[in-house]
Each structure stands twice: as C-alpha cells, then as structure tokens.
Fold each of these.
Amino acid sequence: MNAKLTKSRQRAICSELGRVRLQLLYKASVHGFTGAAFHQQCDHRSPTVSVGYNNSGFVFGGYTKQPFNQSGGFVNDDKAFLFTFTGEQLLKYPVTGPGNAVKMIGNSGPHFGEALVLVHESNPVAYSSPGNYYNFTAAEMHGNDLNLTECEVYQVEESSELERPWRTIVWESEKRAGLIESIKSYKPTVSSVTQARVLLIGPVGAGKSSFFNSVNSVFRGHVTSQAISGSSSTSLTTQFRSYSVKAGREGKPLPIILCDTMGLEESKGAGLDIDDLNSILKGHLPDCYQFNPSAPLHPEAHGYHKSPRLKDKIHCVVYVIDSCKISIMPTGLEEKLDAIRRKVNLMGIPQLVLLTKVDEACPLVKEDVRNIYKSGYIKEMMQEVSSRLGVPLSCIIPVKNYSEELEVDTDCDILLLNAVIQMLRFVDNYFDELSDRMSNMQTKEACPASRPMTAGPDPNLLKWMMADGASGRTGPQ
C-alpha cells in the first residue's frame, strides 16, 4: 500500500507536529470509500492526519490528536487544525471551537466539526462548510471541487530521527569510487600474504552469505547471488567456503577473501561446531569442507591442512547479527557467541560486528538508507549489541544487504564498502600486533635478561611472521 501524499508534503505536515513521521492506515481506493472501512482501519488510533484529493489537484485535510470512534458525539481537541497545500506550501487553519473539533460519525470518514468531512455518508465526496469551528475559504481549501479521487489517513508516530548524524559518512558517487579503488589497491603488510582472510560468523539467517553476495554485487555492477542465501530455520550454508571477490566480471581477485561458515544455532549438536571453528581460525580447514555438527573435523580427514601458513589463517572475525532479532536473541545463542568471542580474543584475532537488515528494523532507514546514522533506534540497537556481545560501539558497522533489488544502489554500496574498509584496517591491526611481538621476540633473543613476553598469539605465528617478513606496505586509508 503506497502513500499518495508526497514526501515533501509529509515533511511539511510533520514540521507542524514536531519530530514525527506518518504511517499510512487507511487508503480509500484500497479499503473502500465507506465509513465502515475507515473506522475498521482507524478507530482508536491517534494522533492522525486525514487527507483528501480531488480531480482539480487539491490536497487538503485535517489533524486531530483524538482517536476516532463511532459514538456520534463531538470531542474536544484544542490542537486540531485543517490544512491545504499551495504547491508544496502548507496552509493551516487552526480550530476555533475546540469543544466541537471532531465528530465521531459511524457512516462517514474523518469528520472535523461541521466544517469538513471526507468520505461523506460513505460516498467518495467531501462535505464542506467554512466557519463551523474552523475558518477557511472553500476556493482556497479545495477549489469547490468536492468529488474525491482518494482519501488517506495516516497515524502520527514519534520519529527516532536524530538532529544530526552521530557518525560522519559521505554519500557521493565519488566517495564510492574512492572506496573501491582503496580496496582494489590494498596490500597486506606481510609480503607472503596476498589476500586478507575474513571469517563471517553468525546465527542462521543473519545474512552472512548475503553479505558476500552484496559485496560481490558492488564490484560486478549488478546484484549477484553466487553464495546460497535465503530464509530457513536451519543453515543454508553446509560447507566451509572461501569466496574471493573479483573486480568485475573478468577482473582480478581483490585482496580480501570472505569465508562463510555454517550458521550458529541455539541447541547443542546443531549449527557450527566450536571445535570446527578452532580449525578454521588456525587455517586447517579445507575449502568446501562439509560441516557435520555432531562430529568436528579430524586431523586425518581429506584435505586437512596439517601445517597451515600465515596466509591460510583467519586475520579478522566478523559477527553478522540480524538487527531485527537482537532483543529476542536466545540465551543459548548468546552464550555460544560469547564462547566464540573469548576463544577469538585468546588467539589475538581482531573482531567486528556487522548489523544487517537495518532497513527492516527501522522505517526511517527503509525510507532512505542515508538516515542510518540519524536513526536513534539503530543506535540503540548497536548499543544493545555492544552490551550483549561485549564489543565496543566503534567495532559495530550497520549495513544493508541486497535482497530484493536487481540493480545496485550508490548509498547501499557505500555502506558495504565502508564495512570492507574497516575489515581491512582490522587486518592491518592484526599484522601490526604480530610484527610488534616479533620485534619483542628478537629483542628477547638479543637480551636474554629482558622481561618475558606477555600472553598473545600462538608463537608459531611469530615464527611464520619472521619467515614471511614484513613488507612495510600500508593498508586502506
């Protein structure tokens, strides 16, 4: 059900009411030009804005904070007003008789005193009588054309929109192009590692595979679906997959590999096994390994990497969380995520959180993805994730995956590309930490009396680091 009232006119009305938004309740062409249909959709809902449209091009109506009913009497509303538009400019007519501001009539639509009635006596017409508790001229209000082509009623809802974005992001095609070039030119700071390996972990249906498909879509220039994704109560990903994104249809692989895993499930013996996760993080797991939740990978299994190098390891872990399900996340699932986070912490691997489906969670973002950092609701969701998963707010990135679209969108691309850039920055942090520990190890060997190294990454990694060498090249800016 699409609103006929334009966004600019919605904003003009909302500017009179504070920080609010309009949610469509009733549309006469859909529900019927009858009082019964109107009351079925709108009774006991408030505040509301009612809008009439005629063939002469006039858009007019009224606002009331009182909920509609069918009592037959008048109700008091000192905030009620009628309005019309001259172009995009709102003309407002405040109530002059608050005690008779709205009348509750069963066989009619919105009934403002005796001055204006939309869907009068269950007909697609308006009734107009200026001066009865509202002062206006009929010619200015509706051009004396009382035949309605449409009637809509919107509920006025509090908006979560913040006055200014709490994170700065540039929404320009030039910025998109710059992010793409930064990713394409990225080189890990270890010469033997040509591609950063990022592991995606998350509950079933959170959008791990969809994230890879979405990033791949950005570089292909149209929406793709290479990784299996969709809606299911159990994981659609049953294998460990390492996806290399290409710069275009026949382009070179980008310097990042997104590793997809079986989805996490609350019950034991279902979904990704934590022992398998340990093998993934250390680089033992072969690509296309078939998960078996009841039996973790055995070192003698076909394809098992017994001596993985630094390039085979996971360099950053990303938790993918559905923003629509944060508040109802089962305790068992939260405990699994906590156990994984602790294991990853001990291995010294940096961690990020992707907050997906933000457009489904917040109407403000669904209306315009550029509102992502102006949405107070999304910020609250991110704060809840921070608290429940024990990660800093700075490590949480909201994104919108492509799901129903056929073509890519610049704003969605920018969110996705910013997420990838953040992953590469965290990969650099990982290699920087290894480099620092390698320097400490060399210092210790040169000065045996120096203080022992503190707990950190597997010492084997430091040996790999020494063998591989640091290239000194910088990562994404």
Note: Residues 231-235, 450-455, 466-474 have pLDDT under 50 and may be disordered.
Amino acid sequence: MPSSKNLQGGKAFGLLKDQQRQKLEEINQEYLEDQKYSDEEDLAEKLEGFKNKYAEFDLNDQGEIDLMGLKRMMEKLGVPKTHLELKKMIVEVTGGSSNTINYRDFVKMMLGKRSAVLKLVLVFEDKASGSPCKPAGPPPKRDIASLP
C-alpha cells in the first residue's frame, strides 16, 4: 500500500492547479462582464481555451509564464525559439512592463487586434490541431538504407 506521503505530492499539485485555474476563471469572468469584449464571438469558449492553454505552460505556478515556460510552450508547439526571440515575444505581449507573461496580458493579446508572434503561433496551432497531421499508430520501421 502506498504511503500517504506519495499521495500528498500529487494531491498538493492537483490542489495547486485547481487554485490556479480558479484564479484564471475569476479573470475570465471579468472579461465576460467587460463591455469592451461584449461583441467578441464565442467569448466564453475562447476564454476557457485560453485558461487551459495558459495553465498548461505556467511552469513556475506563480500565475505567470516565464522564459522557460514560454520556451517549453514553443518547443511543444513545434516552433522552438532562441532566448532572444522568446524575450522579444514576452516584450511584445507585455509591452516591456514585465519579463513574465501574466494571464491578463495573455488574454489581452489573444483577444486584441495587434498581431503578436505568440498569438500567431497559438492560433496556427489551434487550426493545425483541428486536423490530425500525423498518421495514427506506431511510426513505420526504418532501415539503414532509407536514411538520408
């Protein structure tokens, strides 16, 4: 039988993620009530998607995406970036006010009219993930002759 210590770590992390999502949900509520965004189509669905995407990459669990979180996000999306590019992306999103991306900045960027590199990547990724581009199943066996 596993000790309760082992369960604590996972449970603690789960609770932390729940609290984090709750905070993001409260911010989403502000956007839903904001007149400025009242004409935004499918706002509730979009905000739900933003919340899930953001929580996935908030690695430091401080409610912010730092340089390493952004780096991992870009790698996971298949568009790795250099540190300089990542720093530029953060400046683009925050207007240079911070070296981490908080959720409000993230939502403003996603709903805003300005096109930021991060927004373009995420929008493209969402469109791309709609259609499976990788064949299902294990990769085909390769032999030495087939290598370039």
Note: Confidence is low (pLDDT under 50) at residues 1-7, 131-136.
Amino acid sequence: MNVSAANVTVAIQYGDSFSKALIKNLIVVALSIFINYINAGLIYTFSKHQIFNTNPRYILFVHLVINDMIQVTLTVALFIISYIFFWMPMTVCYFFILIAIFTTENTPLNLACMAVECYIAIWMPLRHAQICTVKKTRLLILLIWATSLVSVLPDLFMTLATDFHTSL
C-alpha cells in the first residue's frame, strides 16, 4: 500500500478566468442592450400613434414588451451581480428574485389574454368593441399583476419564515 497517495493536492477552480468572465459579460450586456433597444423602439412607436393607444390588442402587446424589457434587464443585472459579488444581502436578493418571478409569470398570462382577445375578435366581431375596451384591458393588466402577486406571496412568506433567523 502506498501511503503517499493519500497526500494528493487538489486544485479547486471557483469560476471562470477573468478574460472568460469578461467576454461572457460583454456578450450578454451587448445582446441585452440590442434587445432592449428594439423593444424601446416598439414602445416609442406605440406612444406616438394614437391608434395604438385605443386598441386593446396593442395595449396588451406593449405590456408584454415592457414586461420582457424588465425581465431581460433584471436577468442581465443578476448575471453581472453573480460575477461581481460573492455575497448579497437577503433582502436585496429577495427583491430581485420577486420581480423576476413576477415578470416570468406575467408573460404566459399576458399571452393567454392576447389569445382570448383574438378569439373574441374572430368569433364575435360585432361585440368585440363592447367586450374589449381600453378600460377593461387596463383592468386586465392589473389582474395579471395581482394574479402573479398572489402566486408568489406564499413562496415569499415561506422563505422569509424559514430564513428569518439566518438573515439576522
């Protein structure tokens, strides 16, 4: 039996090299700026033309675009923060994660509402103007955010209850 085999030095690598991390971050930031630039152009076009502001379909679409801009910006910020900080206060992390979960859950709900609006436009064209109004669309967006909030609150309370003593 060889005793010297037990004295093995193990090198542990804790992440990417500086150049690899820098290249990853530059690519991610460049792509997010490009995507948000396109989305900002869509929002600018929406805000400049009155026809878009009075159509529930475009209001739901611009809500989806704004939601996606928030999601892209937040995920890129979390990506960069993960390379800069090894430790983050729990309240800051909860804030970022809570908004990320909101925007993640808003997207399918918004797409479902857009599908229902298209269904109404196709199958009930004479009643579409009565059913799908701007006021109802804004209430629907509020309902989307409230539904996301209700689905996230139990997880938030469970996490706060179990991690409260470790955050002090």
Note: The chain is about 80% helix and 0% strand.
